Amino acid sequence: MEKCQAIVQAGSQQVTYEITQATQETALIFIEIYKHRDNLKVRAIGRRFFGGLKPLAESFGVEVEDHASAEVAATMASPAPAAPASVQSPNPAPAPAPVPVNLSKIDLLKRKVTLTLEKKKIEPIKARVAVVFDASGSMYKLYRNGTVQEAFERILAIAAAFDDNGELDVWFFAKDYLRAPSVTARDFENYIARTYTLGSKGGTNNEPPVMEDVIRKYTVEEPNVSIPTYIIFFSDGGVSQKGKITQLITESSTKNLFWQFVGLGQANYGVLQNLDEMPGRYIDNANFFALDDISRIGDEELYDRLLNEFPAWIKEARAKGILA
């Protein structure tokens, strides 16, 4: 088959999604439909599988034993021995009830993080995980339409996959900053709405104070040189304090901190766009990429980009004695 098409009809609205150039695939995921607050949301996935339902099931965290199908086939192919005429065959024992699979949204995303590491041939990572969200006035729409909550859930899955205690540490920043309560996968629903009220800390971008607080938490309040700290920093642009940001990133290059900056939209990201060429650091401890629309990028691509440089930094940090 060269082209497949999925059509979702919701009232008067119709969404059409096509996968082209499909050839040897035996299973396809077109779209994800899930409930968000009181509405249903649709996200294009476009993921293809080879090998039938087994790899598809495993992508959602369902373990399928390789020898199970062979055993079933062998049983079906071999005729059962006939019972002696004088002995009446007993009624077969009822088959055990299937074990229900109850995976939350974070569990499913966590599995995708693990698959990304496996694809990159990276050993399981143990690290502290933090996320910093831009909360300036220009981000208002993304908070209201649920985009920030969605981004939070996708980052929480990384913490669930390899955080040292399963917690995600969260900050918000604009002119001021807010260190929010840490959260686990058990309490992710409506976290953004429950934790941050737009307007209380809104305004313009001011990255240095929140960066200083992140550094303070992991190097002064809760130091641990045996485990890396992975900081995902979302900004929609307007980055202006080049000198101070450069200083903080340079100074923290001797610490067990890795900064993954993510730009939201097409904007001016200033110094963040030149992190790979930033001189004077003990080790390259930061990376940056921009997304036009984070809600339109698939989970696999997002995790692939988020975990592009962090694993290599861990190896170099250990070689240079930053990590014990």
UniProtKB/TrEMBL annotation:
| Signal peptide feature range | none
Residue ranges of every copy of the VWFA domain listed in the record: 128-306
The UniProt entry, under InterPro entries, shows: TerD (IPR003325), vWA_TerF_C (IPR019303), VWF_A (IPR002035), vWFA_dom_sf (IPR036465)
Pfam families assigned to the protein according to its UniProt record, in alphabetical order? TerD, vWA-TerF-like
Name used for this protein in its record:
VWA domain-containing protein
